[in-house]
Amino acid sequence: MAAQVFFSVSMSLDGFIAPESPEELMGRQWMELQQWVFRQRHFRENLKLGKGGEEGRDNDIVREAYRRTGASVMGKRMFDAGEHAWPDEAPFHTPVFVVTREQRDPWERPGGTTFHFVNDGIESALDQAREAAGDRDVRIAGGGATILEYVNAGLVDEFSIALAPVLFGAGIRLFEGVDAARVALEQVRAEPSSRVTHLTYAVRER
Amino acid sequence: MAAQVFFSVSMSLDGFIAPESPEELMGRQWMELQQWVFRQRHFRENLKLGKGGEEGRDNDIVREAYRRTGASVMGKRMFDAGEHAWPDEAPFHTPVFVVTREQRDPWERPGGTTFHFVNDGIESALDQAREAAGDRDVRIAGGGATILEYVNAGLVDEFSIALAPVLFGAGIRLFEGVDAARVALEQVRAEPSSRVTHLTYAVRER
Question: What 3-state class would DSSP assign to B73?
């Protein structure tokens, strides 16, 4: 099977993936949205959050999302937020292509992550990521606006959503501005874990 | 167990339960959202849509939602839309309490449905529905605004959502205006069928 382009996010039941402002990122709602993943051993080790953690099905799902990924694409806002938050050994361990207007030399981190700064648009970034990923998949890492750009351009093959039993009421919606007339979805898998429901959809163009 | 107050709706992946205007109610997106239920034998028989239909797990889930319901509550808009659309033998077969300012005598239909018109608010309508339902549950039938009023008033015990692999992009969101600070959810069940994912959440007050 050819490499897939996918995203994988946690979403509240009412469709939000982040609070309105970055200052709220450690607020209660966001923590409730993300708490399932912060408990997983693979996630904790990868982000250097400390030893231990759960090793059940949720952990397998987190690890699988990393294992299948041969390269990632992200927007400038996600990179800027992560640049100072990620550990030195950045949690990707693959090439990462950052869509930005900033011109900058590749930034190589210990542990196999190299950030490449792409100035000529989302399609170019994806082409380079596909090339780098080889047989493995390309993950559109985020943020939400970048994911939606790729979805609306018809460039995403698969949605992976951890639907959390949380209501936000306000914030940043994953699908705000989606081109609904273009994207048809097929439900591939829905798997409840103890804390969230892992949903997988394949994209079919109309 | 005491009778539960629940709602049961189909929701798009991006959180919509209806198009913006009633004229679109037979439009493509809404049909895509609802198509799973229109195929079910129990639903077809109950709405007098014709014989036949599927008899698998989706059908069991539809039937169970009707069987557990001892009385329903609905808003005036849903009643107005349904009054001329439902068959003579209205599809409830129980008392239905309509929250409205209209004063009107109870309207008895063949097959066990009687519509009662309640002029003194949502709590009164629910009290009357609980009384009528006895040991069975009370369904907040709709529409979305009425469901949300009950949710925000802390009067709903359970959410039942058939999450459909459809994106609306615009329309009426189930949780628009939800009091997120009040409602805490616990994931009770997530069951994929061939067309949708049936999600059940229990409400816990914060």
Answer: strand
Percentage of the residues of chain B whose pLDDT score is greater than 70: 97
Q: Which two tokens stand for residue A157?
A: 């093959």
Residues in chain B with CB shorter than 8 Å from the CB of A30 are none
Chain B nearest CA to A21, separation (Å): 17
SS3 at position A146: helix
**Touching check for A158 and chain B: CB below 8 Å?**
no
Listed residue (B66, B35, B42, B45) closest to B56, CA to CA = B42
For the stretch B71-115, pLDDT in tens is 999 999 999 989 989 999 999 999 999 999 999 999 999 999 999
Q: How far is A11 from chain B (nearest CA, A)?
A: 10
pTM: predicted TM-score of the whole model, two decimal places = 0.94
Tell me how far CA of residue A65 lies from CA of A58, A135, A193, B204, in angstroms.
11, 15, 16, 32
- Whether ipTM > 0.90 holds is yes
Determine the residue of chain B that is closest to A192 in CA distance. Answer: B190
Contacts across the A-B interface (CB distance below 8 Å) = 90
